[in-house]
């Protein structure tokens, strides 16, 4: 992925949480909320990866489901500004998570680390989306819940649990 340009036109809004609230945070939060209605409750001991976290709509809705106290949420994003904004929001809302700058195409987590993986709207902007999906599989447990949301022009195109066995695959 190309580095973000440092040039900012005089009348442009700063690259901050307010800008992202204006350009789509409500939509991604609404979609994340709907996604959680399609899943069973998080069992005790769940280890969740919120990949390409953005402003944290997935984390926010996970917390809103009142999961067991002993879940762990690992949060990553490739863009340092997004990680900073996420961490400010997480601190203000007292979420039990902190984002780190990690490339979903080259995850540093061990194999089979996660019971749940969420990647919302990050896939289309990645340089190598196939590498990201491979990494999601590698870091997921065999029976994990894996959800990838992709969008085109801000509209949900498809959401599916990644399951390599076509006879048991379900689509929503």
From TrEMBL:
Sequence ranges assigned to domain Methyltransferase in this UniProt record: 49-141
Pfam families per record: Methyltransf_25 (PF13649)
Name of the featured protein: Methyltransferase domain-containing protein
Species lineage: Eukaryota, Fungi, Dikarya, Ascomycota, Pezizomycotina
